[in-house]
Structures
1.
Amino acid sequence: MSIKSKTKRCLEVIEDRLGLAAWLGPIMRHPVPRATGWKYVFGSATLIAFVLQVVTGVILATAYVPSTSQAYSSLQFITHDAFLGNVLRGLHYFGAGAMVLLIGIHTIRVFLMGAYKFPREVNWLSGSILMVLTLGMAFTGQLLRWDQTALWSVVVGAEQAARVPWIGTAIAHFVMAGDTIGGATLSRFFALHVFILPAGLFLFIAIHLYLVVKHGISEPPVPGHPVDPKTYRKEYEELLRRDGVPFWPDAAWRDAIFGLLVVVVIAILAIVIGPPELGRIPDPTILNAYPRPDWYFLWYFSVLALSPHKLEPFIVVLGPTLFGLLLFVLPFAGSKGERAPSRRPWAVGSVIIVLIIMWTLWWEGKRAPWSPDFTAQPLSAAVVGTSTGPVAQGALLFHQKGCEYCHRIDGSGGRRGPDLSTVGERLTKVEMTIRILNGGFNMPGFATALKPGELDDIVAFLETRKGAVPRSVSNSETGALQKH
Amino acid sequence: MHDSEPLAERDPVEATRREFLSMVSVICGAAIAAIIAVPCVGFLLSPLIRRAPRLWRSVGPVNNFQVGQTVEVSFLDSSPLAWAGVTAKTAAWLRRETETEFIAFSVNCTHLGCPVRWLPHADLFMCPCHGGVYYKDGQVAAGPPPHPLVRYPVQVYNGEVRILTSPIPTV
């Protein structure tokens, strides 16, 4: 007996006892429509990103200490001392981003191509749950990077939960595992991130894949060919008989190639850029904090800053509730009818609008013009135009009294309030005085914080702010520039 | 086997027995789930059931604080866990209004809990997150906060300023 035939015999015995090929073979080779193409790779790529997250997460857990007092130093060890620790954290960080991004693209693809319609409504529901769980993983994962930002993110999360009527405070204390942030807080988020949410993901991935095989991969939509539950199944089976190909390998090869691409990009980012540096220690008594969510929640950070104040409690509580409800109602409300994007302008339009809104909010979140700029430095003498007298004194006060944290002058300062580079042209001395003393339009009044002389100096300084040209430029040049 | 099943189904006694056995099995399963779930859920809900006691914590002698000034103070939570590390402490902004009167503000912005900073020259608290601003007495000056800064109970006892440990304020 040759080695080849021995191996064959050996495999036959294994197959006879386990029956794996007999069981999985037909599943892997289940027929799919031939016309599926590169648009169909995002679901499997999300799964590959999830597998990467599980593996790198388990390995990180061998070194991470989920204790409120020690997590920070164990993260320092992983990042700076452990062999390949930085790369592993990078893989897990960019893997998380990839998973959020890919599940989003997959959802949009399924929505635009109407693949959630009959008979795949429950595929959509299980997918929606997977998306919510993924966002839960993204949030809790950011918290396990237990630095100052993570600590305040827990507080911000708990305070949002507290907006729920009646039981809000109880939920907030449940989230923090106590009345305040303490020893129990991080352990809870750790259990949530590594046991509870992943268990949910495994369960719903199994359901999702089972349903994908049961109902088959949706065929690319054809305009003018609506879904009719009475005839759909028969037509789909007919299509597979006529023009079906086995999933493995006729369709799976694209998933494999795209999956490889995703993993390679994650690996390159992990090595070249690396994981985000840890912030300050998570000490609740260090109040010079600047908490920001990771990029995937930056748009929501803007929602919280920009919502009309009176509506905010409703937006914070009802927004996510309505979003969840919409996800669940959608496949049943629209289980029939046209699937092609060209016949569903409202579907295409709503995706475009949502993407534009999210992009705008994301961009605003990155700039955060509503946050005071605590890093603003005193204006230089070159900007002020003089280094003595009331104008110089006013410029100094403009910084000291916090005006500059919210107002910009010649490119320096916050964006919270109007840019004051040319305020001397817009407002008179009296108008400025009234505004500074009384505040208004989201500006505090400074009547009690300023001495009369100080107010005069600030106004004197602001009166010099005319024209967006450097003060060293001669008058003739100024005239020439202003003509433009 | 194949022959006995239709026979048994036809037999009303056998059918009732099967119904009963199914019910017993389902009830057993539910009981197993309940026995496991009750202590587990109870354990998770313990932060709601066992509230932390509230204690007066000293933040320093009265003479450490000057009238009209607002400074950061910190104190130990009422019953910190041994592994709480730096999170065992809570900070507050303490303002001495008069010789005898103190105000202790929670550092948490009433909007969504971010730590507000005190700007001593501007006499303002400013929040770094969504732009909340408060006057020195904690009243809202600008931005999204729906309420003034929350005040902790504060007292002077034996020449020491003491703050009552309190939950992170929620709306």
2.
Amino acid sequence: MSARDITIAPGAASPAWKALLYLLMIGIAVASAFPLAWMVLSSLKTPAEAMQTPPVWIPATPSLDAYSKVAELINVGRSFANSALIAGVTTFGILVTSLMAGYAFSKYRFRGRDALFAITIATMFLPPIVTLIPLYRLVGSLGLNASLVGVILPNLANAFGIFLMRQFIAGVPDELLEAARLDGASEMRILFQIVAPAVAPALAALALFAFVYHWNSYLWPLTVLQGNSDNYPIVISLSRLLSYNRSAVNTNLVMAGATLAVLPPLILFVFLQRFFVRTITASGMTGQ
Amino acid sequence: MLAPGIGLIAVFILVPMALTVALAFTKWSSQTPFSTATFIGLDNFAEIFGSSSVGRDFKGALINTALYALLSIALILPLSILFGMLIHQAQLRGANILRTILFATYMVPMIAVALVFSKLYSPSEGPFNQMLGWVGIGPQPWLSSPDTALVSVVLLNVWQQVGYFTILIIAGLTQIPPSLYDAARIDGARGLNLFGFITLPLLRRTLLFSAVIALINAVQVFEPVALITQGGPVGSTNVMTYYIRRVGIERAQGGLGSAMSVTLLLALVVTVTAVFALARREPQR
């Protein structure tokens, strides 16, 4: 594209060029939203409508039948509870471990600090599949296979959280910490009563990242839960609808299930997106 | 302070990493304790690069993954630059709404993306072929043909991820001082010149970082393959994460799977190092 009038000084763009850019913008928004809109619309179709060729876009008589059918096929309540437990506990653990390690890495001086930090950061770029096989056995040998603890425990700390907290805690003035130390405050107290509130927006962003990531996470729970469907989070329960995916009659079912799984992370995002964007921008995650 | 975080990372990432490397040289069933592993030297590597069916499938997965990553990056980077400039520099009303919509797709669980796209791609009841028909293009087989299946998975990946990379690009664009554009404009630079001499060179680090992240993400593609294509048709979507898990967990051939993991890691390290070396050699403008 030409950047002719992508300009910092306003008022320079010709109306025709501006109109073209608006068209482009609307086109991108529509393309981006279309699959999700189609998912919701399809979940409201009747089986007959779901089968029609060429496809019907908007159901004539929207119905929630597919949702009640999904609730018969999979234990939606239990799956949601498992997902919330997995994502919630994991997120809480990540917040605590990231705050502590980030504080130590940014405010303490000790031998080997930078080397240790570098090793920690390197794990951020490790695709999970590389460690999956021994991790599966390791968690199994702890007797945690098929359990929710087995899903949660290995993820209670991660390099991204530690990196993020180190970046933001570095901006907390040392004088503030020294003053608290002079008053006799313990390090834990300083961390949770002074440092944590000072980096609250970054903590909120980390919480959202972690929650959404672990709500959506599929590979590890699938591997460690070994078919124990009582402990399935919703994303894995969904795969039980797959046997229905072969036939177009059941498209509405599969789409209803997908809609259910998408809603929690999406709702969370809509309310808290400003933290996401601000934190990515400010964290130096752009290689600057 | 460090103990909980670093301890967990050591036990659940660094130790398994070391085990992966060690087990790659052993015959070991992942259903049995680590102590049952027996050293067999380079046999696993000979097998995965050999002419057996495992060797064929592994090399196929390696090539498919490389293709998948390359295509993903080749689509994601230009699109995210375009979207980022549109949102950040074009001064359009509603740009923030576009940013929200784009980023929202990144929040959608991959399993849902896979399920929805399997329906969108459906040759007879899917809306994609219907829309192609409106503009006079014949129906495509999408996920059901070996020629188009991998590209179809790439497209759903691009749809999900491009919003995240757009945010990264916007973060990079905010670092470029507006005064640079003003100065260049006084010197008579316009349009593509501004883009080529200011925007692109100053986005270099952001683009490099984005390319590495996109590569690491691409290697992790799993759900659409595990659920929809099972690596097919005819192995065309057989990718590394799917195949390593299949061999190392489902078939319990832990040693063999570990050798594949080590190979994947080496391939990644070599690629990333090469990309950085190339980026450094290219003269700064």
